[in-house]
Specification:
alpha+beta; YefM-like fold
Length: about 100
């Protein structure tokens, strides 16, 4: 089994020789689909037994990526150095605005 192996295939490769995609997946590789030389999608093999678990794992990955993006945005805006009092003040103001 290939484990962490990734094979790169262009969208043209998949269109012209779709068997290359299936062969790569059967060998245990994941496939990075490319367009204009840039990765656009990742295809991973799944079976009936692990399909639902794989979907849950992908949801976790998307969640972790979103958290990292929020953390990076927070740091770039200097929000990561706010005091607890500053945060509480923003919460109070927001709640007061919503009450009107």
């Amino acid at each position: 089994m290939g484990g962490d192996m990734v094979k790169f295939l262009s969208s043209r490769d998949v269109r012209n020789t779709p068997g290359a995609l299936w062969d790569a997946l059967e060998s245990g590789a994941s496939v990075a689909l490319t367009a204009n030389g840039k990765p656009k999608a990742l295809v991973i093999g799944v079976g009936e037994d692990d399909f639902e678990e794989t979907l849950r794992d992908l949801g976790r990955i998307r969640f972790m990526r979103a958290v990292r993006a929020l953390q990076a945005e927070s740091t770039s805006k200097g929000l990561d150095s706010m005091t607890e009092e500053e945060i509480e003040e923003i919460i109070r103001k927001t709640r007061a605005e919503r009450a009107h």
